[in-house]
């Protein structure tokens, strides 16, 4: 079904940081830099120095791109007034490492924040640096090193990241196929409502799926005497600090590649059976072709396929198991909690996110062919995914998916199953989530004892401001 939408608001690309509309695929080398400041005034001076480097969405840089985001402790460190700090969402203010948020996210056991490499201690801001090659990146890093030393800004973590062969992730599967389309970014108003979304789902200052302006932080008019910020569309006495910004969720997820494939081979038998089992857990074959369309073997012509559903094509999960990773993170048109296909579509649509992360670490096999990975010994290197998503509502979008779909052990009528790929597989606590159910006729097959194939190594919630908001923060923090 195709529906016509009237695009009412043109995006102010010159005021939006570029990551919200671009992936910077032409800048394959990158580093994510986590900082804390030692003096508010000097840190603000540092921010003012990098402001000219911040790349807006209106530009497609050929050499490098800079993006910046702040934690709530970072904004407090910059001495924003309480009236402004209090206007942010509860989730952002509490932070990802808050004990209650960890319970919601399933960040317990070996995922708990006291095991993390970063994120359990206060961080102030994140700088994302993208470059065309390593030489350009090192040039940018040298400039930033000098700048941070003169401004008393401490680099806590420098996380290298890049792109892998064939748009794959470290387990050897094509990644990032299902990406939401922002309606205001395209000229054609005839858009599929299952894959296109109003800008307000991902960018503050625009209408969302509820036909409301996305919730955003505000500034009392008296605290913006120079009118650097636009007026808030719903609260005339407030200025809109969030306009053209969003929240950025960052989680470093280590992938235990050797453990993953060893489990598949031990459980399934030979290499082909191991790949078939792993594909059942993911919901796609390694080349990206979806099991719902080609359940018995991959079809290269469908490697980019995203125009499929589950309600009519695979309601019972006989092709793609109900607990598969792609069905949990994007149930599309089938949720057992909803009575109709339409209700399922609408529910799933309310919890989409813009994913912008990248892998890190060397691949276990250069071309990430599962057959080759199966034959490769564990080299001891750390590898994984820097998961980054952009949302306007942390709780409705990211936390809902993580709590209700990724880690909930009774998702889709299951019993003891978490997401087989990224879920926390409890084995010795008051609930078990270490099973994976494969619907088969007449009796389903249940695998148990799944270890954690991914482990959280760090994480934080950030505010990703618009350009005008950045100028306000740097001048008035």
From TrEMBL:
Recorded GO MF terms: heme binding; metal ion binding; peroxidase activity
Residues that span the membrane, as ranges: none
UniProt keyword list: Heme, Iron, Metal-binding, Oxidoreductase, Peroxidase
CC cofactor: heme b
GO cellular component labels: cytosol
Name of the protein in its database record: Dyp-type peroxidase family
């Amino acid at each position: 079904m195709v529906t016509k939408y009237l695009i009412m608001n043109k995006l102010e690309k010159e005021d939006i940081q570029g990551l919200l509309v671009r992936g910077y695929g032409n800048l394959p080398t990158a580093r994510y830099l986590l900082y804390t400041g030692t003096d508010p005034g000097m840190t603000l001076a540092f921010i003012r120095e990098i402001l000219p480097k911040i790349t807006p969405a209106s530009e497609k840089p050929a050499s490098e791109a800079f993006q910046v985001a702040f934690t709530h402790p970072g904004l407090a460190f910059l001495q924003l007034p309480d009236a402004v700090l209090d206007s942010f969402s509860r989730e952002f203010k509490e932070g990802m490492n808050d004990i209650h948020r960890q319970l919601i996210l399933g960040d317990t056991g070996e995922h708990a924040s006291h095991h993390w490499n970063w994120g359990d201690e206060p961080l102030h801001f994140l700088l994302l640096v993208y470059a065309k090659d390593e030489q350009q990146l090192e040039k940018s890093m040298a400039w930033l090193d000098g700048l941070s030393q003169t401004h008393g800004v401490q680099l806590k973590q420098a996380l290298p990241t890049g792109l892998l062969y064939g748009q794959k992730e470290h387990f050897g599967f094509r990644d990032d196929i299902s990406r939401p389309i922002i309606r205001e970014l395209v000229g054609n108003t005839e858009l599929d409502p299952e894959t296109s979304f109003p800008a307000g789902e991902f960018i503050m200052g625009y209408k969302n799926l509820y036909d409301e302006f996305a919730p955003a932080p505000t500034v009392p008019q008296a605290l913006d005497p120079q009118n650097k910020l636009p007026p808030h569309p719903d609260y005339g006495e407030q200025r809109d600090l969030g306009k053209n910004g969003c929240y950025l969720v960052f989680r470093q997820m280590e992938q235990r590649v050797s453990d993953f494939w060893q489990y598949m081979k031990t459980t399934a038998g030979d290499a082909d059976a191991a790949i078939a089992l792993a594909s059942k857990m993911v919901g796609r074959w390694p080349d990206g072709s979806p099991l719902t369309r080609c359940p018995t073997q991959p079809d290269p012509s469908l490697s980019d396929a995203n125009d499929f559903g589950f309600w009519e094509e695979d309601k019972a999960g006989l092709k793609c198991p109900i607990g598969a990773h792609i069905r949990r993170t994007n149930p599309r048109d089938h949720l057992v909690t909803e009575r109709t296909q339409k209700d399922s579509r609408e529910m799933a649509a309310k919890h989409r996110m813009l994913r912008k992360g990248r892998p890190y670490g060397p691949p276990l096999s250069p071309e990430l062919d599962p057959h080759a990975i199966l034959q490769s010994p564990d080299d001891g290197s750390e590898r994984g995914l820097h998961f980054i998503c952009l949302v306007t509502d942390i709780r409705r979008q990211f936390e809902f998916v993580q709590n209700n779909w990724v880690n909930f052990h009774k998702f889709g009528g299951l019993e003891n199953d978490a997401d087989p790929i990224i879920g926390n597989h409890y084995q010795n606590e008051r609930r078990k989530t270490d099973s994976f159910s494969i619907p088969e006729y007449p009796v389903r097959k249940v695998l148990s004892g799944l270890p954690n194939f991914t482990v959280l190594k760090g994480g934080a919630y950030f505010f990703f401001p618009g350009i005008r908001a950045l100028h306000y923060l740097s001048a008035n923090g």
